[in-house]
Structure formats: C-alpha cells, structure tokens
Amino acid sequence: MKHSFRKGLMTGAIAGTAYILLTTKKTGLQRQHHLRQYFDDLTTSTQHLTQSVQRFKKALGHLQHEVKTTAAPTIAALQQDIEDYQFQMQPRVEQLTDDATKLQDKLNTLQPDDSQN
Questions:
Q1: Tens digits of pLDDT across the chain (117 residues)
Q2: Angle at 49 between CA 36 and CA 44, to 5 degrees
Q3: For residues 34 and 26, is the Cβ–Cβ distance under 8 A?
Q4: Does residue 31 contact residue 24 with C-beta atoms inside 8 Å?
Q5: What pLDDT, on a 0 to 100 scale, did the predictor assign at position 113?
Q6: Is the pTM of this model over 0.90?
Q7: Which domain of life is it from (predicted)?
Q8: What is the DSSP letter of 117?
Q9: What DSSP assignment string belongs to 57-95?
Q10: What residue ranges do the domains of the chain occupy?
Q11: What phi and psi values does residue 25 have, to the nearest 5 degrees?
C-alpha cells in the first residue's frame, strides 16, 4: 500500500511538472529570473522579519526594566499609602461605629416594642 501511494505521488509530481513546463508561456530564462526575484524577495522579507523580532526583543527588555524600576516602587508606595490611610481612619471608623450603636440604642428606647402588645 505504501509503495502504491509513493508511486502515485511521484507520478503525479512528474506529470504536473511536465504539464507546467509544456504549457507555460515563460521561457527558461524568464522562469529563472522570476524564481531568482521570488527568492530575493523572500530573503529580504526574512531579514526584515528578523530585524523586527530583534527590535521587539529589545523593546521588551526595556519594558521589563521599566517595570522593575518604576512599577515595583510605585506599587510599594501605594500599599504604604493605603496602610497609612487605614491607620489614620481607624479611630474615626471606631467613633462612627460607636455613635451609630448609641443612636440605635436610643431609637430602640423611644419606640415601643411591638412584641409587647
């Protein structure tokens, strides 16, 4: 089975190549020039891609450096500011909670309890 597939593949490749060579309107020199131009363009595109990848890697390195040097200290400073704010607000929150409890107790003494009726 493998041999018949290979045989068919090779026969198809040879027949396709022969058909193209016999029916094409390009001469051998034109075809060579076209292939040379194609591979030159492919080489140039590959070089541009390689340069772009190198620039991307360099930019990524700069970004990582910036994150390490600016983002980490900024996050630490923000966390410190939040802790300071919470520390400063704690007495006020406790006072507000105490006041709310006292108000609720006074409201409960002013209103008659519906369950006693």
A1: 557 888 888 899 889 888 887 787 777 788 788 878 988 999 999 999 999 999 999 999 999 998 888 888 888 899 999 999 999 999 999 999 999 999 999 888 887 665 555
A2: 20
A3: yes
A4: yes
A5: 60
A6: no
A7: Bacteria
A8: -
A9: HHHHHHHHHHIIIIIHHHHHHHHHHHHHHHHHHHHHHHH
A10: 60-108
A11: -95, 0
Residue with structure tokens 């309107």? 25
Residue 82 C-beta-side C-alpha neighbours within 13 Å: 6
Phi, psi (rounded to 5 degrees) for 103: -60, -45
Torsions phi, psi for 70 (to 5 deg): -115, -40
Two tokens, residue 20: 């193209």
Residue 2 burial by Cβ neighbours in a 10 Å radius (0-12, 13-18, 19+): exposed
Measured CA to CA in angstroms, residue 100 lies from 7, 93, 95 at distances of 92, 10, 9
* Contacts by 3-10, CB closer than 8 A, 24 or more apart: none
Q: How many CB atoms lie within 10 A of CB 39?
A: 10
